[in-house]
Amino acid sequence: MGSPSPTAIYPAAAVHTLDPSRPTAEAVAVRDGRFLAVGTVDDLLRIDGATVDGSLERSVLMPGFVEAHSHTMAGGMWLHTYCGRFDRRGPDGHVWPGCTDLEAVIQRLREAEADLSAAGAGPDEPLLAWGLDPIYYPGERLVARHLDLVSTTRPIFVMHASCHLATVNTALMEFDGIGPDTDMEGLPKDGSGWPIGELQEPAAMFLADSAFRKFWERMRAEESLWNFGGKARNTGTTTLTDLGNRSSTDPAEIERFRKAVDHDDFPARLSVFHMPTPGTPEALEEAAAAVVATRAESSDKLRFGHVKLVVDGSIQGFTARLRWPGYLKGGNGIWVVPPEQVADILRPYHRAGLLIHVHCNGDEAVDVYLEAVEDLLTEHPRFDHRHTVQHCQLTSPSQYRRMASLGMCANVFANHTWFWGDQHASETVGPDRAARMNSARTALDLGVPLSMHSDAPVTPLGGLHVAWCAVNRLTPSGTVLGPEERISVAEALHAITMGAAHQLDMEDEVGSISPRKHADLAILEADPFTIDPVELRDIPVRGTMLGGRIFEAG
After folding, report:
1. What CATH number is given for 221-546 in this structure?
2. What distance separates the 2 farthest-apart alpha carbons in the chain?
3. Are 512 and 17 a contacting pair, CB within 8 Å?
4. Distance CA 235, CA 321 (A)
5. CA distance 114 to 483
6. In three state form, how does the secondary structure of 311-349 look?
7. Around Cβ 55, how many Cβ atoms within 10 Å?
8. Per-residue pLDDT tens for 300-356?
9. According to CATH, where is 3.20.20.140 located in the chain?
């Protein structure tokens, strides 16, 4: 027999394993990129050939955070101009101040337009920006005529923070032929019949053909993926998702992911979910078979073979589908997929044994997905399918009970309480329903497997902030929104590690510091179990370990 591979022992200030069989330890032992054991340093030194590495002895170690709902475009967005409400740190470390009023948005865009002109960009080169959300600014809603103050000649396309809406200027609408005769759901018009410059949901955004395509083409740049990995390293995240990629079965797209994610220097794992589209039964069967075939392209760092569908829109964008009484000021949202088509679209993917996650912000959308899953399970029973409701913004106790009975999971958008909690109480659904949003406590109490997410780039990537939101439920105004729905620090940390790993069907690989799992760690500079819970999101992240290799935060 040959000699065993080298074993490194990492003592730490504290080790929280998230493994109930041994929840805490003094040190971890790593061999061949996997956890070998946890225990005291003396215990681990009994391992033949083990040596002590003291580089993490002042740090707190946790399993690397698992982000079960994010998008690789979170790295590519920074190739455009940020004009969101809150301060955001880019992948290069630069902090972009939030635009606190409409004038600040317009000024940010004027600066970007001046930069384009100075760089010699022609008049048809669009100004592309992101992060806008008019709901933050009381009074008049930002529309085309406001963007016309930036330029009356250069097309301007500004993606909203939710990525479900965009605002464009008059020059863009003229360039792409968007006018009074354009008949499209999601294209609001003024009293005289002219489009106001807001494009709601993908079908309407496609009208801005040239700018829309350029916006998304940049998301495919190699720099986009590397930016995404850098954000993961800086937030303690070791497993990411690209939750909804229409091109994930394309060999060129697979190779693009391979080139970056499988590179030794890429600091995270990535699970890519295919985004199905409506079609004939034959076309859907063919598409499902193509997704199954991509599983053979997976590696230890890159995973293919799951599915994500979007059913409705954004609550703060007023395009999510809500049960009665709808929005506070009346009306309802937009079906991204007609309800009667949901089961038909998902059927071949369910029958093929694939994991299915579905975007459901509104509670009416949740009803549609639950009906579809019940029909599919009646037709084709499956054990341990883990089909997941994504966002669960307004999911009710009765819906959670039904999810539990169907063997489904919930991935709650906890960050909404901070980023839009005040607006939900005052503008979208009112204080009572807003206090019931993102109801992690109810989900856990009713036995629904729980994870929580950032939906980056909609909100910044970072498990500690997500956990902080669920534990404290604070809004920027200082309100505790729905205190009865708060969960404990331990429950929140479980949701962003083992809970998320379970929903990605990866709990045997990541999510806890347990023997045989990948040696993936979040390396922290304070202990989330001992600090004041209000300070949870402020814990400095030193970096990560991925497969036994340390990546220092940048």
Report:
1. 3.20.20.140
2. 84
3. yes
4. 32
5. 47
6. CCCCCCCCCCCCCCCCCCCCCCCCCCCCHHHHHHHHHHH
7. 12
8. 999 999 999 999 999 999 999 999 999 999 999 999 999 999 999 999 999 999 999
9. 221-546
Q: Do 66 and 506 form a contact (C-beta atoms < 8 A)?
A: yes
Rounded distance, CA 456 to CA 225, Å? 13
**Class in CATH terms, 7-58:** mainly beta
Residue 1 pLDDT > 70, yes or no? Answer: no
Listing DSSP states for 443-478 in one string gives HHHTT--EEE--TTTTS---HHHHHHHHHH-B-TTS
124 CB contacts (<8 Å, ≥6 apart)? 154, 155, 175, 210
DSSP secondary structure string, 145-162?
HHHTTT-SSS-EEEEETT
CATH dotted code for 99-217: 3.10.310.70
Among the listed residues 445, 463, 468, the one whose alpha carbon sits nearest the alpha carbon of residue 453:
463
Residue 82, pLDDT > 50, answer: yes
Residues of the chain with CATH 3.10.310.70: 99-217
Predicted pLDDT at 418: 98
Q: Cα Rg for the chain, rounded, in angstroms?
A: 23
Q: Which two tokens stand for residue 523?
A: 């390396």
Query: What burial class does residue 164 get, using C-beta atoms within 10 Å of its C-beta: 0-12 exposed, 13-18 middle, 19+ buried?
Result: buried
The 3-class SS string of 361-425 reads: CCHHHHHHHHHHHHHHHHHCCCCCCCCEEEECCCCCHHHHHHHHHCCCEEEECCCHHHHCHHHHH
Q: What are the tens digits of pLDDT across the range 465-474?
A: 999 999 999 9
Beta-bridge partner residues of 239: 66, 269
pTM over 0.85: yes
117, 262 Cβ separation under 8 angstroms:
no
Q: How confident is the model at residue 452 (pLDDT cuts 50, 70, 90)?
A: very high
From-to residues of CATH 2.30.40.10 in the chain:
7-58
CA distance 377 to 29: 43
Cα–Cα distance measured from residue 279 to residue 275, given in angstroms and rounded to the nearest whole number: 13
User: What is the total residue count of the chain?
Assistant: 554
Contact between residue 482 and residue 505 where contact means Cβ atoms under 8 Å apart: no
